[in-house]
């Protein structure tokens, strides 16, 4: 183990565990040895590994892997919050997704996690005034992962996007901490209006597959939006809404729906 990683490991148990799991993969599936070393074991920190993955996935004939890697490394070095968010997002996936059994799975195999981390770099670009590069990153995320998140949208930490196919999140959307959403969710506008026009999702909200939340509306903390619903009005805290258009059908069923991932409408 390189000296730098040895010094870091006691202070970063998440990254230490990822490296231990990667070594186990190398032992159990030698054909993936090169993949694990290039993506994980070769890097001293989780941030460096994420920067490498960002560049590897989003590079194309239009922009090189080296340029994208330098951008991502600068983002992680100048904004420690990105690394904190990446770890919180990883633990969110590990805790909430029953298909996730190891820490390395989101980093290596889950496009929802990878898309969110790439979006975070794009958001950093947007916030630092490099807006054309941010939009370029948005385009590549959409092309690579099937996830379209405007770089101006604001996300908290502990985000899980399960399966992550056909996710659309608009420019002025805000997503709080510890939010869970499934595939085909839209946080969009209602027409051609300009300005603040997208939803504001509170902490701990669970958004079911295929749900559409439209307009500059608020979804209160710890609420649930049932799969396939179309939400056009504010949702109070700790409620469940369902239908087209969505109506309140009951309480949220638990203190933190996004953590329990219980989609049953009968849960009270």
Automatic annotation (TrEMBL):
Q: Which reaction does it catalyse?
A: L-serine + acetyl-CoA = O-acetyl-L-serine + CoA
Looking up Gene3D superfamilies in the UniProt record yields:
Hexapeptide repeat proteins, serine acetyltransferase, domain 1
SUPFAM superfamilies linked: Trimeric LpxA-like enzymes
GO molecular function terms noted in the UniProt entry: serine O-acetyltransferase activity
- What does the record list as GO biological process? cysteine biosynthetic process from serine
Please name the pathway. Answer: Amino-acid biosynthesis; L-cysteine biosynthesis; L-cysteine from L-serine: step 1/2
Q: Could you tell me which PANTHER family the record lists for this protein?
A: SERINE ACETYLTRANSFERASE
Write down what this protein is called: Serine acetyltransferase
Report the source organism: Pararhodobacter aggregans
Family, similarity comment: Belongs to the transferase hexapeptide repeat family.
Write the Enzyme Commission number(s) for this entry. Answer: 2.3.1.30
UniProt lists the gene as cysE
Keywords carried by this UniProt record: Acyltransferase, Amino-acid biosynthesis, Repeat, Transferase
Q: Which segments constitute the Serine acetyltransferase N-terminal domain?
A: 14-118
An example Gene Ontology CC term for this record: cytoplasm
Magnesium as a keyword of this entry, yes or no, is no
